[in-house]
Structures are given as C-alpha cells and as structure tokens.
Amino acid sequence: MATVPGCYRLLLLCSGPGRGGLSYQSCLIKSYPLCRFSTTQNSNSLFSGIVTKAKHMNERYEQFLQRKFPRFYLLYSTFMKGFRLLLSDAKEVGQIKVKMAKQDLQFHELSYREMEKVRQFRRNILKAAPVVLISIPPFANYLVFLLMYLFPRQLLIPHFWTPTQHTKFLAMYHRMRTEDYPEILNGIAQAVPQAPERTTRYQMHRLLAKIQNSSHPEIAELQEVAPLFSESPLCLAHLSTSQMKALSRVMFLTPYFPSFILRRRLRSHTYELHQLDTALLKLGVKELSDEELRMACYIRGLNSTNLSPAECRPWLTQWLQLSDKLKESEASLLLHSMVLLSTNYLHSIKH
Fold this sequence. Notes:
Helix content: over 70%
C-alpha cells in the first residue's frame, strides 16, 4: 500500500472490514479535526518562531546602535517610543469615539481625561501625520531621524521629543507667546474707552494698572470687569483683527487665516476650554497627577515647566473659579485671562 498521511490512514482502517461496523462518515468526522489541529499547531509554531527571531534581531540591532552610535540610538529609541505612544493614543481615542456613538454622548459629556485625550490627539495627529506617512516606506525612517535631528520642535509632536527637549521646547513656546502679551494688554486698554459703562471702564483701567505694576490680579477683580467682555469692542464677535491674531498665537493657533476664520477658531477653542474647565471642576484639581496638573496650567497660559505642583495648584484653582462664574457671552474674558492671570504669577510667588 502507498504511504498515506496519518489521519487518512485512520480513515482507511475504519472503513475496512472487521473494524466494529463503523461507517465511513463517522470515521471521517473523527479524523478531520486531527488534521486541522496539526496544521494550526504547525502554523502557530512557525509564526511564533518568526516573531521570536525578529525580536532577537531587533534587540541586537538596538544594542549595536547603542554601542556604536549613541546619539543616533537616542533618536531611534525616542522615535520608536513616540510611535508606540501615538498608536496607543489612537486606540484609546477610537474607544472613546465608539463609546460616544453607542451612548449618544457629546464631547462636553465626556470625563475630563477623555475630553483632554480627544482634544490633544486631534491637535497632535494633524502635526504628526506628515512625519508618520514619510516613515512608512522601507528605510524611510532614516529620513525621519534626520528631520528629528534638524527640526524637532517644528516638525514633531511631544511624543517624539526627548525629556530634555520637552522641557526646553515648552519653555521656548511660552516665551514666544509672551511676546504677544503687551500687544493684547494694549488692545484691551485701547478698547476700554469705547465701553458704555463708566464704572466698568474705571475698574478695567485699575486692573490694567495693577498688572503693569507687576501685581497679580484677584479673581474678584476679573469678575467685576466681566461685563466689559460681553459687548463691543471686547466680545468675541467684535475683536479687532490684530487682537485676534495675537490671541491666536497665545493659544498656539495659526494666525494667518482671514478674520472670519480666526474668529470662528478662537470661539471654538475658547468654548472647548470652558467645557474642559467644567469637567475638571467635577473631577477635582486634587485628582490630577503632577504632569496633568502642569499641562492643565500650561494650555491655559501659565509657564508651569519649572513650577512645583504646590505652585501650580493655586493658580489652576483660581482659573477654575473664574471660569465657573462666567456666562457664555463673557467667553472673551476667559480667552484674555490667559494673559491677565499668567503675566505676573511667577513674580508674585517669588515675592
């Protein structure tokens, strides 16, 4: 007899005479799973072996880079770590989107951390998309490493920054936005005489004088002038183009759009920030980790890179107190408070 695979040999034996009267069909049913199990087991073993081999080769490659090219290895490891973080964020945001669809939730109905994750991912992916696309073709990641080395701040999101770069670049971005603080304060001062309410004009002049004398304003003083920001010329609907461009740079938004687009983007991001404030009030400032606390202050205008949590927490608490009391029509004050509340805070805690 010719050689026959094991499971089919079992089939032939069962169908032969004198084998207990088993039918052809019953033997076939008993033998087929044996064939399938064997094939699957072999495939899994082969795949596992390939994965193990690839992992071992990658480890040896990384050890070679770390030993021979330590500076390049730092870029390589930073890129790989950042890429994994970006994929993890994409997966998490996808789960949040599915949850929103299933439960019919709006953005403002999410928890604070979910809102912040979606907001930050949306901004990051727009900047990271070109770099990720460049890295897809074989060996193209070396071009990405070159770009990382030459233009890390301009082309890369924080996922791909080294710890040293992270602190350095955040401080640099803050210095860039503080260059617009005098223009924003001057814009407020020029708009105050046009306000119809005399008492509010006087309170605003007093507040600006206090800030110009390097004093940190109280929340009650900002609440007193809130009506000024709900009407022309300081409400969102009537801000001048130069004021909108300066405020866009403070919020890290592109200022090179037409006025109507700048106004719409400022309004959208300000309302989104107010929604984040509402969710953070529900969570509680004390529930934030140190890193979350610093980033919450940073996106609201305070340079928190070198501040301790004990120095960040009072400022964020003040911000939330102001945000909680503002009406929707007074959203412009929240936007301008990125300047009003952060200009002299560092000076005030030193003294």
